[in-house]
Amino acid sequence: MAVTNYVPLLVIVSCLLMLTSSSHGHYDKEHIPLFVFGDSLFDPGNNNYINTTPDFQANYWPYGVSYFHPASGRFSDGRILSDFIAEYAGLPLIPTYLDPQNDDFLYGANFASGGAGALVESNAGFVVDLKTQLEYFGDLEKQFRRNLGDAKAEQLLSNAVYMFGCGGNDYLSSVGNNDSILYPYTHEQYVRMVIGNLTDVIKGIYEKGGRKIAFATIPLLACWPSVRAGRVGNTCNEELDLISSLHNQELTKKLQELENHLDGFMYSKFDLANEVNKRMRNPSKYGTSELRNPSNLV
Ligand SMILES: *[C@@H]1O[C@H](CO)[C@@H](O)[C@H](O)[C@H]1NC(C)=O
Ligand SMILES: *[C@@H]1O[C@H](CO)[C@@H](O)[C@H](O)[C@H]1NC(C)=O
């Protein structure tokens, strides 16, 4: 799979998913599930089922006002990216993994948790960090092997698309710690640690048989509403744009490196940073007349 910078994630993932057509209602070898990991960008309501605080949940007004009634736990007035991607790929809504009502994950599962980072320290105790999300996926892998047998389970896992949106919280959650963000680490050291942990999780997916990864870059965080809200004069914190950009550069390098070294590994990258930046700088052009930020999460 070629590197597909700057192509919208929806298009990329839909293509990955539709390389072969999927049919509903039963399992067959063309079946392509979607597994989703990350933070509030993709959380469909997992945080409703963990012990946390309302800051890390989105199951109340005005969340969900334009689509889910009542609010589903998505950090959005309506659907989130992963919902649209599933729809365009002809999949059902991907089930929220921690919702005890869900037990059929043949079309995929969504493990994302609002506020989660790649580092276990980021918002620890309030979120399901990415490593734990991978452990839950490991439980599901075992369940597939038990229920389908090894051969079918392996086919399902290698057909599947694994979509990630994670990393922004690793930088946001450190901002408050000190005037010099990320102290005692340099930007380079800290980014290496975040990317190192993301890489471990991608390798974990690969070891369990996953081959197709879709990754979103992190937003440029300097002018993020929650960042500005915490600063005198509501100024942007330009240091955060430097580190977000560095993260995205390193992510790009790492994905390319993994593709070069892991047999059968393919990825697509969505330049979320650029897409969000355009919308924050020129909201009316994209149909937003009023910007609000009811939560301090990515
Ligand atoms: C904040 O960072 C400075 C160095 O930039 C360091 O000297 C100081 O001890 C740090 N404070 C805390 C509370 O970590
Ligand atoms: C992952 O993050 C931890 C801190 O949570 C750090 O100690 C470790 O070195 C990181 N791993 C890699 C491979 O960078």
TrEMBL record:
The keyword Signal applies. It holds the Pfam family Lipase_GDSL. Residues 1-25 form the signal peptide. GO terms for molecular function: lipase activity. Coiled coil: none annotated. Keywords: Signal. It comes from the Eukaryota. Belongs to the 'GDSL' lipolytic enzyme family. This is Lipase, GDSL. It comes from Artemisia annua (Sweet wormwood).
